[in-house]
Amino acid sequence: MIETRLLRQFVVVAEELHFSRAAERLHMAQPPLSQAIKRLEEHIGYPLFIRDKRSVELTSAGLALLDKAHELLNTLDESVAYTRRVAQGIAGHLVVAMINLNHHPEFWRALGVFREQMPAVEIRFVEATTSEQVALLESGEADVGFMRTPGTTAPSLTIERVLLDPIHLALPCNHRLAAASAVKLEALAGESFVMSSRALGQGFHDQILTLCKTAGVTPRIAQHARQIQTLLGLVAAGYGVALVPASFESVAMQGVSFRPLLHEAPPELGCVALNIASNCTVRSPLRDAFIDTIKRYL
């Protein structure tokens, strides 16, 4: 294997076509440089220079090596610089898993800031439920997750709340309770509910059931849906009411009214959290820089 030091010395000699000047550029004596070029020629098996007392010229083999050496050394230098940027957390790639965040414009603004500050970072986004994100983060298939609070323990994950969203009632515009400015939770007794499946989001699902239980309400679940937008579509179609994060009011849907929910449950039970999660067993300066930026601008 040829040492990169020999290649760099060869390139300087090839550019100068003068051993004394090349030695000066390399800050070394001429005899060691001549010996280095001789070793390189012996390794390749062919002469690289034609030397006489008046001039130094490249052979055809030397010309061929010069092109490849430039290419190789440039690639090496770029790779080293890129590696340093990755180690500094200013380059690389991330896989970011997320629930639907269309109703959180502040998140997209924060993401835009990160993109402007770190243009060399490549991000691949994956839409996934909270339970799916936990699996992706634990397996190393994702670097960061934006999720609801998981319903199961995840010891390897660091989960930090960044936003808190009150739970509101979504109901059809022609519903008997739509005329009220706010709706008491106990008034929903006997109503049909549309909810996300527990298998897709155990934490949020169980939180809704627990919240209802504090008011003596047992939801009669008429339909399940994967996405809250689908839940709202089912609400508009009259299949039932839904308890959803208040931020979804910004995603207007014809036929759906949103009302604040009145209850006596603990405050944390009446709100749903948006969390940033990562695997604390994996070190990643880039991931940490991403999380810090998003938190700063949320």
TrEMBL record:
Domain HTH lysR-type residue range list: 2-59
InterPro entries: LysR_HTH_N, LysR_subst-bd, WH-like_DNA-bd_sf, WH_DNA-bd_sf
Keyword match Transcription regulation: yes
Pfam families reported for this sequence: HTH_1 (PF00126), LysR_substrate (PF03466)
Keywords: DNA-binding, Transcription, Transcription regulation
One cellular component term from this protein's GO annotations in UniProt: protein-DNA complex
Name the UniProt record assigns to this protein: DNA-binding transcriptional regulator, LysR family
Organism of origin: Pseudomonas taetrolens
Lineage: Bacteria, Pseudomonadati, Pseudomonadota, Gammaproteobacteria, Pseudomonadales
